[in-house]
Amino acid sequence: MELLRALVFLSMAALVAHGRDTDLSRDSFPKDFVFGTASSAYQVEGNALKYGRGPCIWDTFLKFPGATPDNATANVTVDEYHRYMDDVDNMVRVGFDAYRFSISWSRIFPSGIGRYNKDGVDYYHRLIDYMLANKITPYVVLYHYDLPEVLNNQYNGWLSPRVVPDFAAFADFCFKTYGDRVKNWFTINEPRMMASHGYGDGFFAPGRCSGCRFGGNSATEPYIAGHHLLLAHAAAVKIYRDKYIHAQQGKIGILLDFVWYEPLTYTTEDEFAAHRAREFTLGWFMHPITYGHYPETMQKFVGERLPNFTEEQSRLVQGSADVVGINHYTTYYVKNYENLTHMSYANDWHAQLVYERNGVPIGKQAHSKWLYVVPWGFYKAVIHVKDKYRNPLMIIGENGIDQSGSDTLPHALYDNFRIDYFDQYLHELKRATDDGARVTGYFAWSLLDNFEWRMGFTSKFGIVYVDRKTFTRYPKDSTRWFRKISKDVADK
Ligand SMILES: *[C@@H]1O[C@H](CO)[C@@H](O)[C@H](O)[C@H]1NC(C)=O
Ligand SMILES: *[C@@H]1O[C@H](CO)[C@@H](O)[C@H](O)[C@H]1NC(C)=O
Ligand SMILES: *[C@@H]1O[C@H](CO)[C@@H](O)[C@H](O)[C@H]1NC(C)=O
Ligand SMILES: *[C@@H]1O[C@H](CO)[C@@H](O)[C@H](O)[C@H]1NC(C)=O
């Protein structure tokens, strides 16, 4: 059966491959560079309310009509909970070295704290053991948007300081339980997306903002949530360093989303607007982690609404990442713009995003309207992290491009546009590592066409297609392209 599947995979890839060749190889990148794909628990596991898992804030959020264009839920998604072996086998065939996945907090602790759920704990044991048996290195994220619903009901989740010790206890449990085999930990994925979309515009669970149906205050809550996300991250890192790092010898970090913001014109006003955009996104988290306090620009523009770190908190947060994951997809122009309609995180930037200059689009648009193909922005983003934050150890935690969810077989497998994207973006990454950025790995988003949050299943980012009726996996042309790059390992 295994052999048959492998043959089907290889012959399909050979038949459908129209993809361009590439001059990239493992030798293009530093020694021991890691290639992999990324996912998150909620997006791939399915079985959202089975095997003892407690609900998370997304289960509740998706119940309101219109939450996704296709009324999607994560009840089943791509059922990785049962099909993880297929997925790991596909990683091996492509020649990947690593897989970035997240642990569902409410699958481990259905009530957020207290008694653990043995079925959930055992699932991650199986996944990790199967990966290691197949030489796929686990990169494990502890939080990817999926707060246990109970904690939202009890104390408004990330708005309360109570979330800090609760998250730290969950992290402690994971280090203790899996840390003998997991050497690459990430506390929180994209705290900015959580704080700004969860509490600034209500686009993500728990759906809070000024005027939102679930309540909220767009001028204050994003900063409070962001503050607690940073403190929770730092508390988990402290536990790892105090109790586990000596015996387990791993690394721990955080994953941050970072669009590159290019000034629309090279006037002082637009240059400063682009600077603010970078400080309000990456800098919001990376500045405290590097320097122990929020960026001066944010302090100036947000004023009293921006919480402050105590001396002790500042010491905990500063230096709290051995490695920083950068999730990068696209680039926008920015112009100076003061939006006085109401006070909010988005308007605090005093900047407006623009998608063309002199009538020329910044890049080709993907299926997702927000995603423009702008490879040169990737180089600038990585070099910015290197130059501004003391050249930290980095991974690229996410990078990829989508196609329409209505693409069907076999057409959906011919993803030349995706090969072009990866080829151009990886060339820019090579340029950045050649220029001294300390990037040690690259994770494509995503292995599978999975549940894409507010897009439901109407957007496909996978390099592997999933038949939503049978859950059979069909590798796309881009898997064959990756196989060329990672060849020497695949053929060992
Ligand atoms: C989603 O659900 C709403 C409410 O039940 C319904 O009106 C709408 O037609 C559904 N949309 C789709 C794409 O199924
Ligand atoms: C998903 O599961 C929830 C809880 O069991 C249920 O209320 C809902 O109807 C399910 N949705 C679908 C589309 O199966
Ligand atoms: C935060 O601390 C800084 C440095 O001590 C201080 O300048 C600033 O006014 C404080 N901000 C608030 C909102 O308390
Ligand atoms: C100004 O802010 C409001 C409220 O956040 C928003 O709806 C509007 O789109 C913004 N305008 C511009 C031009 O950014």
From TrEMBL:
<feature type="signal peptide">
    <location>
        <begin position="1"/>
        <end position="19"/>
    </location>
</feature>
<dbReference type="InterPro" id="IPR001360">
    <property type="entry name" value="Glyco_hydro_1"/>
</dbReference>
<dbReference type="Pfam" id="PF00232">
    <property type="entry name" value="Glyco_hydro_1"/>
</dbReference>
<keyword id="KW-0934">Plastid</keyword>
<dbReference type="InterPro" id="IPR017853">
    <property type="entry name" value="GH"/>
</dbReference>
<keyword id="KW-0150">Chloroplast</keyword>
<keyword id="KW-0326">Glycosidase</keyword>
<dbReference type="GO" id="GO:0006952">
    <property type="term" value="P:defense response"/>
</dbReference>
<keyword id="KW-1015">Disulfide bond</keyword>
<keyword id="KW-0732">Signal</keyword>
<dbReference type="GO" id="GO:0008422">
    <property type="term" value="F:beta-glucosidase activity"/>
</dbReference>
<keyword id="KW-0809">Transit peptide</keyword>
<dbReference type="GO" id="GO:0005975">
    <property type="term" value="P:carbohydrate metabolic process"/>
</dbReference>
<keyword id="KW-0378">Hydrolase</keyword>
<comment type="function">
    <text>Beta-glucosidase acting as a preformed defense system. Hydrolyzes the bisdesmosides avenacosides A and B to 26-desgluco-avenacosides exhibiting fungicidal activity. Can use beta-fucoside &gt; beta-glucoside &gt; beta-galactoside &gt; beta-xyloside as substrates, but not alpha-glycosides, beta-thioglucosides and disaccharides.</text>
</comment>
<protein>
    <recommendedName>
        <fullName>avenacosidase</fullName>
        <ecNumber>3.2.1.188</ecNumber>
    </recommendedName>
</protein>
<dbReference type="GO" id="GO:0009570">
    <property type="term" value="C:chloroplast stroma"/>
</dbReference>
<keyword id="KW-0611">Plant defense</keyword>
<comment type="similarity">
    <text>Belongs to the glycosyl hydrolase 1 family.</text>
</comment>
